[in-house]
Write a structure and sequence with these properties.
28% helix, globular, nine-stranded mixed β-sheet, six-stranded antiparallel β-sheet, Aminopeptidase, 11 helices, Aminopeptidase i, Domain 2, single chain, alpha/beta, 2 domains
Length: 463
């Protein structure tokens, strides 16, 4: 199978649709860089399309019928969406599953300190990153601070053009002789990734104030957000790259932005569900958290939250017995919507050139991911791969197949193997990314649109 650039196949009308879709995508990921923001914006979007809160439907025992649309918001950091199909749930669902967390820095619980007239925040990196990529670039602080009176303060420092930015300093090249001898993994120590946030001492501070710059920062936080230093113990603050997603390349064929992994698959899956409408089988879009750290916690794919939501759906559809959920999941079909490593001509040696993917050549299917001996992978069955191929062929969708690098080079994981534990047929299907896990990643606009079309075809036609 030899793929060509998708750009060669577009007529003017299709290219206009592609460009318009990507403008929507750029705007969405620029405004919603954290999982909380992604869920909040998604809920507002789906409510405008007639989705109702599953929890409210369950409390009121409101029956669900074909065409009904519901969402389940898991703690503001994960989201499950369902459109009830014409066939009974015992015949399974067509599911798209993506994650909405991305590599970043998390602010520690006791973060704020002063050192030689500079106020800094202690941070802990989240997910797999090259630490040296995160220094000397503009960063934004986003998240929430929960206080003991039950209120939750939203923090966003950096998005507004009038806001300041923050950052992690780097050692100047003139004094970096010893640093430059270190390996890339040692150049920046994780414990030294401290975020600089201020340098002005508090005016009229008491004479015994030992950290006047820190005191000034605390005053700013109190005045603007009504929070004290101890409130940072119950905070979730993320440090992410500053700035909006931008067109990349002189021909504007690509997008550079933060969090393509995996928001590019999450957004296209979400839009595919909205645009597919009522289908033969119940359709689902599952947007999870914590994938970058093992899909742990109550909002990760290993949580029983998704299983609980499917159980609620079954009950409201009239299948109120203990085996209904298991039967539904066992009969379901899924695409684990996660990105793949796009070929980079600057680093060709890490690939098996017969089994790699290229920007601009379509959605990517990974029969397995994992590391080295397929460890941690799902490894989809031949029969299921054939069924997915037929859906793509019937809908004229161009696709690629790939591995995540050459054997013994590296590898990575997705949520596919976790979902397979429910006896769901699943294969990884996502969009090729360059610079994966860097502060600014790159995707092809053609692949973004092709991924959306592929996901929509899967929801409508997979059997």
């Amino acid at each position: 199978m030899e793929n060509k650039s998708l750009w060669l196949s577009y007529d003017e009308a299709t290219q206009n649709d592609l460009l318009a879709f990507n403008e929507g995508y750029k705007a969405f990921i620029s405004a919603n860089k954290t999982e909380r923001e992604f869920v909040s914006a998604s809920v507002e979007l789906v409510k405008s399309h007639g989705f109702k809160d599953l929890d409210e439907c369950f409390k009121s025992n409101t029956p669900l019928k074909p065409g009904d649309k519901v969402y389940a918001n898991n703690r503001g950091k994960a989201l499950d969406l369902f459109v009830i199909g014409r066939k009974p749930l015992s015949q399974g669902m067509n599911i798209l599953g993506a994650h909405i967390d991305s590599p970043r820095l998390d602010i520690k619980q006791r973060p704020l300190y002063e050192d030689h007239d500079a106020a800094l925040l202690k941070a802990h990196y989240y997910g797999g990153i090259k630490k040296y990529q995160w220094v000397a670039i503009p960063l934004t602080i986003k998240g929430v601070v929960a206080t003991m009176d039950g209120s939750v303060k939203t923090i966003n420092i950096g998005d507004d053009p009038n806001d300041p930015v923050v950052g992690i300093s780097d050692l100047l090249i003139h004094l970096a002789g010893e640093q430059m001898k270190k390996t890339a993994s040692e150049v920046i120590n994780g414990e030294a990734m401290n975020v600089t946030i201020g340098s002005i001492p508090l005016k009229d501070a008491p004479k015994d104030t030992k950290e006047p710059v820190k005191a000034n920062i605390l005053k700013l936080l109190k005045d603007k957000y009504g929070i004290d230093e101890d409130d940072l113990i119950s905070a979730e603050l993320e440090v992410v790259p500053n700035g909006a997603a931008r067109d990349y390349g002189l021909d504007r064929s690509m997008i550079m932005g933060y969090g393509h992994d995996d928001k590019v698959c999450a957004y296209t899956s979400l839009m595919a569900l909205l645009d597919a409408g009522e289908c033969e089988y119940t359709t689902c879009c599952c947007l999870t958290d914590k994938e970058e750290v093992g899909s742990i916690g109550a909002t990760g794919a290993q949580s029983v939250a998704f299983e609980n939501h499917v159980t609620m759906i079954n009950i409201l559809c009239g299948f109120d017995h203990h085996f209904a959920t298991r039967r539904c999941l066992s009969a379901s079909r899924m695409l684990s919507s996660d990105v793949s490593a796009g070929f980079d001509p600057n680093y060709p040696s890490v690939n098996d050139m017969h089994n790699t993917c290229f920007l601009g050549q379509g959605i990517v299917f990974n029969k397995y991911t994992g590391a080295r001996g397929k460890s941690g992978s799902n490894d989809a069955s031949a029969e299921y791969v054939a069924k997915v191929r037929k859906v793509m062929a019937d809908n004229g969708i161009q696709y690629q197949t790939s591995e995540l690098g050459g054997v013994d080079v590296g590898g990575g994981g997705t949520i596919a193997h976790i979902c397979a534990e429910y006896d769901i047929e699943v294969i990884d299907a996502g969009i090729a990314v360059q610079n994966m896990h860097a502060p600014y990643e790159v995707v092809s606009k053609a692949d973004v649109y092709d991924g959306y079309l592929a996901y929509k075809a899967f929801l409508k036609d997979m059997k």
